[in-house]
Here is the input.
Amino acid sequence: DIQMTQSPSTLSASVGDRVSITCRATQSISSWLAWYQQKPGKAPKLLIYKASSLESGVPSRFSGRGSGTEFTLTISSLQPDDFATYYCQQYDGYPWTFGQGTKVEIK
Amino acid sequence: QVQLVQSGGEVKKPGASVKVSCKASGYTFVSYGISWVRQAPGQGLEWMGWISPYDDNTNYGQKFQGRVTMTTDTSTTAYMELRSLRSDDTAVYYCVRGHSYFGHWGQGTLVTVSS
Here is the structure.
């Protein structure tokens, strides 16, 4: 199975900060990577697919980049609604696998 | 608008089976796969498998092979049955539209396995 490792596990930041989350795969997954945001008690929400494509309706302060084994999700200016847990997911090789999550907390 | 509405929570004893339903609406059901993803309490997300409503083709995660069955019917409903339940199967089970990345999620169904 392809293992996905996110860093950091927890990130403390303030409103207006630029924050980045890294996701690394144990083997190349080309650009077959998605990012999700999840708030407590809610289903995850798709933010980014194919590493850098912004899902319709997602604010442009979210962006994704990377290919191969290393990927980054960046929030250009953190907003109060962005405090949540973020997951990456690869869909290059079965079984699809998720990172362990990165919790973005208020500093 | 796309909607996936799941059945209600379940409490099961170890060794039992559970069948969760997912009623899809707002799109052409046979045009998209339905996947199932679960999340244990306080834990991350785990992909279980997917089914094509078009031809009933399935792909199950090896971890669940032999214990899970995914089906669909003509009422645009998808089902996920998990057998031989264990305590570590306690989780929220989500149906999601798509077979690769997931833009539409059901509200989740909590399955609790406890003696």
